[in-house]
Structure prediction request, 364 residues.
Amino acid sequence: MENKQVPQSHLGTLPLAEMKKIVADCFTANPWIYWADMLGTAAVAYGAFFATELSPAVSLQELFFFTVSVFAFYRGILFIHELTHQERRDLPGFSIAWNLLFGIAVLLPSFMYRGVHLDHHRKATYATDEDGEYLPFGASPIWRSFLYLGQSILLPFLVVFRFGVLTPLSFLHPRFRHFVMANTSALAIRMDTARKLPQGGQDLRNWYILEALAFIYVLVGFLCFSTGVLSLGTLRHMYLLFVAMAVVNSLRTLVAHRYKNRSEKEVSFTEQFLDSVNIEGNPVLMELMAPVGLRYHALHHVFANMPYHNLGIAHRKLKAALPKDSIYHQATEPTLLSALATHWKNAKEAQLEDEKIASGSYRA
Prediction:
């Protein structure tokens, strides 16, 4: 059955009502898909990591299994995004299993994202100083993007320090405990934004349980490596695995938005959509680089609660149904390379503009 075209009167705006009708059958999460995907991903991730351990050092075999483990763990970890947007009652037990399989293993338990990410979607806080996931990369010199990519080499040390050192120390004084919870407990790209804390209930209980498990994990890891139970080669693989995932995720993050808003003032919903990006391109490459539906980031910012496994279906429906000059198509990049090229162009233009302002030659 053909999709109906959106009335011409809606061109130039985001036709939300019509879009919702077109994708009305795409809002139900399928638990079987979630569980099969996550468990299958975990099997590949851990299997490839152990195969890396058994491979000859500095060999093509080691490189192959290590690469597979990077992208498998990366995919598994990004289910944290779905934990934030899907109701627990729709996926019972999924959050617990994810934390045990991925969250604790890479020291990014789910509380690091829950209570943080939704501010990135709210109209009142998107791209403001309350949005921990937004920096104006596209309106800043390109070196800022490279600096963001480069910080990946430090992230493993930071998360180990957070859970291995700051966790026990934070219980020595209530004020320091509050600081650690508010300022060192967010999976975000801004370091100057304090996160909101859960006020009792299940979220706070889960926080303490997961934090305790993460501390025990660091402690056991320290004992195993210091006593020789696990080799330094394993530690090297774990470090490089984390850094590689962080680099890939940082690269994906840089093209998830245009990042052109640096006024830190509230933007309209349509502006938020146009500041976000859908990337088509090679399906295999994009599933590796932006898995779990994150390649359709602009669409996700319209329908944040749409399950990841339906975003591609919804995008294709909207692309077919909406007129070619609809504003919806303006947020789509044809390939990953074109998205990177657009980001580079925006950043270089911003750098040139800043240089003109600094030299006094800028004219509005």
